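Weekly structure sync, notes
Attendees: PL (lead), two postdocs, one rotation student
Agenda item 3: pending single-chain targets
PL asked that the sequence for the first pending target be pasted directly into the notes so everyone works from the same version. It is reproduced below exactly as submitted, 421 residues in total.
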Amino acid sequence: MIQSVKVKNLSLSKDNVRKSSREAGIDALAASIATQGLLQNLIVTPLKKAGHFTVKAGGRRLRALQSLIEQGILPVDHVVPVLVLTDDDNSVEASLTENFQRVPMNPADESTAFNFLIQKGMTAEDVAKRQGVTTRFVEQRVRLAELAPSVFQALAAGEITLGVAQAYAVTSDIDRQARVFAQMSTSYYGDQPDNIRRAILNGTIKANDAKARFIGRDAYVAAGGRIEGDLFAAEGDENWIDVDLLEDLAGKKLEAAAAELAQAEGLAFVTPIAATHVPYDLERQLHEFHAPARPLSEAESARVEALSAENDQLVEQLEGGLTDGTAEADVANDRLDEIERELESIEKSRREIDPAVRAQIGTFVYIGGDGEARVHTRMFSEKPVVDPNAPPKVMGGANGDDAADDIDHGPSKLVDLWHRH
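Predicted structure, written out during the meeting:
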C-alpha cells in the first residue's frame, strides 16, 4: 500500500543490505531530488509507534532527503510517498532486490540523454544541476555523443570501454576517428587508450609518455627530435613529433641496459621490450623458473605485510574517488611503483641462484610507467633447467614414480603481493 509519510517519521532499517558506500553520491542525489523531486518511493515497514516507519529500501534517498531538510531546502514536515510492507519477513529480500537489480546506465545511453537535453536548449550547467553531477561530467558525455558512429556503436554494445571511447574523443574529426578505429580493431594492442591517442594525434607522443620520460627531452632534442608546443597545454602535454626517432632511441637504450644486466648477473639472456609490459605471448614460449627461496625474516615479513596493506589501500583509492590525471592520483601511482620496487628488492634478497643455473636462465627488461627501465620479476629459460648441484632423484613407490624433491617451485606469496595493482 502506498501512503504519504513525513520524512522525520522515517528511520533506516538494520535490514538494509547496502552496508558499504552508503554515503557515496549523497550530495548528487540530494541535488537531483531538490530539482526534480523524489522519483521513486521508499519501501518501509511500520514501527510500534503509530505513524512511524523503518526504511527497508531507499536508505540513500532517505539520507539525501534528511540532508535537504537540514540545509533548509525542504521544510521540516516534508512528506514523501512510501510503499508499506505488512510482512516484515520480506523486508530484507525487498532491499536486496532493489540494490541488486539496479544496473548502472551505459555511458553511451548517458551521452545520448545528455546530448538530447543540450539540443533542446539546456546548458551543460543546467543539466548538471538537475542531474546532480558536475558540468565537466556532462560536457564529457556530450563529447562522447559526437563520436564517429562506428566508435559510438561499439561503446553502446560494450565492445569497447569508456576509457577507449574517451581516447577517440581527443579529436573532433570523426573521419579520423573512424579510420583509426578500423585499424585498431585488428591490432593486438588496439584496445589500449594510450596507443589510440597516439594514432589519433597523427602519431605524436606526449612528453609524459613512458618512452618519452625514459629517453628524456634533452636527449630527444639532441638527436634531432622535433617538438610541437601548445601555449595553452599543461606542463608535459607538448607533442613529440618524431615517433620513429623516439622508438629507435628507446630501443637502443633498452638494449644497452639489457646487455649490461646480462653481463652483471651472469644470465643467459636479457630480452629488451620497448613497452610498458612484457607480452604474455613472449613469456609462454619459455619455461618459467622459480628459484628456491629462504624464509622471510620477522622484519621482512612485517615489512611485506605493511607494504601489502598500503598497496591495497592505494588501489582502493584509485578505483574509488581519485580521478586519473589529478595530482593525487599521480602521487598514489608513484607510491605504488615505489612499493613494487621495494617488494622486488626483498624478493631478490632471499633468493640465491647457483652460477651454473644462472647461466641457463634469463629475463626481460621493459619501460615502467614512471619512465625507468624495469627488470621483469620472473625468470625464464629456453629449455628446462638442469641444476648440477641438485641431489639425484630417488626412484620409489609401487609404480616406480620419482620421489618429489623438497624444493618449492611454486610462485611465492611475495610475488603475488606486488602484482595486485
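Discussion points:
- The longest strand covers residues 361-367.
- The radius of gyration is 29 Å.
Action: rotation student to compare against the earlier draft before next sync.
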